Amino acid sequence: MSELSTLARPYAKAAFAHAQQASDLSGWSQALATAAVVSQNEKIGELLENPQLTSEVRADKFLTVCGDFDGPQQNFIRLLAENHRLPLLPEISELFEELKAQAEATLEVEVISARPLSDEQSQRLTQALSKKFSREVHLHSAVDENLLGGAIIRAGDTVIDGTVRGRLAKLAEAMNS
Questions:
Q1: 101 and 107 in contact (C-beta within 8 Å)?
Q2: Which residues constitute the domain of residue 121?
Q3: Residue among 71, 64, 66, 90 nearest 11 (CA)
Q4: What is the reported pLDDT for 2?
Q5: Which of 16, 70, 85, 147 has fewest C-beta within 10 Å?
Q6: Residue 110 host element (H or E)
Q7: What is the pLDDT of residues 98-123, one digit of tens each?
Q8: Residue 92 and residue 55 share a domain
Q9: One domain, residues 111 and 91
Q10: pLDDT, tens digit, for every residue of 54-74?
Q11: What is the number of structural domains in the chain?
Q12: pTM to 2 decimal places
């Protein structure tokens, strides 16, 4: 996974720089998301691996499936095809979204709780996390009935384990130290 990130990062940064300069972050975001989904299709995967096709033919067929991409987006796909990097599109799209979120000072946060959060709890949690991370927070919540109580919060690379099981594990660790 980290190798894919290393290979995809320069392409994601280049796409982001162009999109930001062109003031088209959402357009590029949609195009990369579409291309990522297309690249994961089994038939398209076979096409991308076909050694009998030139990179130009691969790019043309790929763009035909993707639909309406503007000139720079088409050029980006052609560059990826030329460098045999079309399979990296899911990783490129993910890294692009991270760069976009940083630029827009937003953060996607996933909250997994034992019970559904009330509107008041969601609002208070969103405000607290916005203050903690100094960003606008977009909260996505899910329910895991296997949790005894509390919640797990995932915000980028940060994971906050506020579950009962997590707290008991911390207590046991402290007592054994």
A1: yes
A2: 106-176
A3: 90
A4: 60
A5: 70
A6: strand 106-113
A7: 999 888 888 888 999 988 989 999 99
A8: yes
A9: no
A10: 989 999 999 999 888 989 999
A11: 2
A12: 0.66
